[in-house]
Amino acid sequence: MAIREKIINAIIKGNASEVKSLVEVGLQLDLTPREIIDSALLPGIINIGEKFKQNRLLIPDVLMASRAIQAGFYTLEPVMKETAQEIGPKVVIGTVAGDLHDIGKQLLVMMLQGAGMKVIDLGIDVPAEVFVKAVQEHHPDIVGMSALLTITMPALRETVDALERENLRQSVKVIVGGSPVTWDYAMGIGADGYADSAYESIGLIQSLLR
Ligand code: B1M
C-alpha cells in the first residue's frame, strides 16, 4: 500500500502515533510537506467529514481522527518553519467565539508561516475582545478569522465591529474564511478579503498589502 493510503487509513482509525510515524516516513521518501498535506492529510479529513455527514461516525470518532491529522500537521510544522524567514507581514489569526474547529486554522497558520509571515495564533473560541487586544498589543498587518459553523458566522461581523469601535479597523486588513463563509458574506460584514483555502490566503494577503 502506498504511503498516502496508509496515512489516510491511520487517520480513519484515529491513530495519531501511526500518522506521525507515517508522515516521518513520507518525509524520508522525499515527499514535500505540501504533497503530504494534499495527498494524505486533507483527503483523510474529507473522508471523515463525509462519514460524519452521513451519520456513519460519532463525534468521538471525528475527534480521534482530528487528533490524528493534527499529529500529522505537528510533524510537518518544523520542516515548514525551517525554510520560513519570518520577514513578511504580521498576521493575527483565530477561530471565532463559540467555534472549536481547529484544523483549517492550523493549516492556515502553517501555510502562512511557510510563506515567511509572522503568525500570532490566538487559538479557537476567540472572543472579539481578544482579537481587539491582540491588535493593540501586536500591531499586525492582517487579522484572519475562521468560522466553520453557520451559527458562529455572526461572530465574524461582531469582531469587525469591535475593531471599528476601538478605532483599529483602519490599521489592519481583515480576512475571513471557513467552509460556510463566502466572498459575498465577507464583503457584507465589512471584511477586506475572503479566501477559499489556506493556500489562497497567501496570495490574498500579498495582494491586500501591495
Ligand atoms: Co464539526 N461540523 N461540529 N467537528 N466538523 C462541521 C464543520 C460540519 C460541516 C459537519 C456536518 O454536519 N457536515 C458541521 C457544521 C454545519 C454548519 O454549521 N454549517 C459541524 C457541526 C454541526 C459540529 C457540531 C455542532 C457537532 C455537534 O456537536 N453536534 C460541533 C460544534 C463544536 C463547536 O465548534 N462549538 C462540531 C464538533 C466537531 C469536532 C470537535 C468533533 C471536530 C473538530 C476538531 C478540531 O478541529 N480539533 C469536527 C470536525 C473535524 C468537523 C469536520 C468533519 C471537518 C472540519 C475540518 O477540519 N475540515 C466538518 C465537516 C467537513 O468540513 N466536511 C465539521 C478540514 C479543514 C482543512 O477544512 O476547516 O474548512 P476547513 O478549512 C479550509 C477552508 O475552509 C479554509 O482553509 C482550509 C483549507 O485550506 N479556511 C480559511 C478555513 N479558515 C480560513 C480562514 C481564512 C482563509 C481560509 O482566512 C482567515
Automatic annotation (TrEMBL):
Ranges where the B12-binding domain occurs: 88-210
SUPFAM superfamilies xref list: Cobalamin (vitamin B12)-binding domain, Methionine synthase domain
Protein name, UniProt field: Methyltransferase
Residue ranges constituting the B12-binding N-terminal domain according to the UniProt record: 1-88
Organism encoding this protein: Formimonas warabiya
Any single Pfam family the record assigns to this protein: B12-binding
Keyword rRNA-binding in annotation: no
Keyword terms, alphabetized: Cobalt, Metal-binding, Methyltransferase, Transferase
Similarity annotation: Belongs to the methylamine corrinoid protein family.
Gene Ontology MF term list: cobalamin binding; metal ion binding; methionine synthase activity
Gene Ontology CC entries for this record: cytosol
Gene3D superfamilies for the chain: Cobalamin-binding domain, Methionine synthase domain
GO biological process, one term: homocysteine metabolic process
Record keyword Transferase present: yes
